[in-house]
Amino acid sequence: MALQISEDHIARAPKVLLHDHLDGGLRPQTMIEHALASGYTKLPSYDAVELGHWFVEACSSGTLELYLETFEHTISVMQTQEEIIRVARECVLDLAADGVLYAEVRGAPELFTRKGLTMDQVIEATVEGFSQGTSEIAHSGKRIRVEHILCALRQNHASEEVASKVVKYKGRGVVGFDIAGPEAGFPPTDHIKAFNYLQSNGAHYTIHAGEAFGVESISLAVRECSAERIGHGIRLIDDIDFSNGQARLGSLAQEILDRQICLEMAPTSNLQTGGAASYATHQIGVMKKLGFNVTLNTDNRLMSATSMIREVREIADGYNWNINDLHDIARNGIYGAFISREEQDEIYQSQINPVFNQITSELSK
Length: 365
Fold this sequence. Notes:
The protein is α/β, with parallel strands linked by helices. The chain has a single domain (14-346), classed as TIM Barrel (Alpha-Beta Barrel). 50% of the residues lie in helices and 14% in strands. The protein has helices at 7-12, 28-38, 48-59, 64-69, 71-76, 81-97, 119-139, 159-168, 192-200, 215-224, 251-259, 267-272, 283-289, 301-304, 308-319, 323-336, 341-364, and strands at 15-21, 100-107, 145-153, 174-180, 204-209, 229-232, 240-241, 248-249, 262-265, 294-296. The protein has an 8-stranded parallel sheet, sandwiched between helices. The protein starts with 6 loop residues before the first helix and ends with a helix. The model has no long low-confidence stretch (mean pLDDT 95).
């Protein structure tokens, strides 16, 4: 029974999103309106369609460093509480329209303090925007839950302060911590004090690793910093030997497989930064077959002109995934979420499993 999926099934399938950057998902029209209101004059275009195309082209450079440069524009129009609230609210609406029922959206609060906001004000504005969006979705008869992950930039020195905010706002809209930014030359161990603090206070964290840098970055994140999840992790494939026609795992790959450490993969983003050659050869398909705990994510919806529906469609087409594969990915996502096991179970049993069972039943007829 193949249980092959259609566009309708992809749209209806419940989706869990663990790796999405708030400042990488703005609506082009919102950027333009914020720029005009605030006097920001450096946008590449003030036409929404052209601006959207510019971001995709600029981000398809093949390098992470050039990709990251485009964020100067999005960050520049998110410097007031009102701007942040709007962007966060629209993020929730856009994700809900995509079939996402649980999301963890991340952002680096230090980036939005140029006009005098404190980190606390940035965090509170983001959470308020998520709350407004969630309420709107509830009034429309649907459900979505969006939580916040606070990022520190690996090239800067604010990780301990950001970690303290994660603990302060734990249970108040913030569920975890992350370090992001250029990997090369900025190992995660630079932030070991922040990770130790988070551990001692029972806070969750993930680490960007193995996106543009090699296996060593992932090893440091897992073995030295005790990462619970890995952002991207695509270079872990370098620790797997396929030369004899059968996968032979190196010690790190075997450890991550055995421990089922969640890998937050984002195919379109990885294609743009040169981490993968095509959807049909993206690491997620091979690693899922080997039993790794992979999840499917958007990373930066604006920069990639993407959505969860697109990510699912592209990988489903590339690897001929069926409805059971999509069910696996959603299950991996919710049980990798930085919420309690009871909350994970409730969302899976009430919102994910029944819908997949219904779709599977339809396909089986």
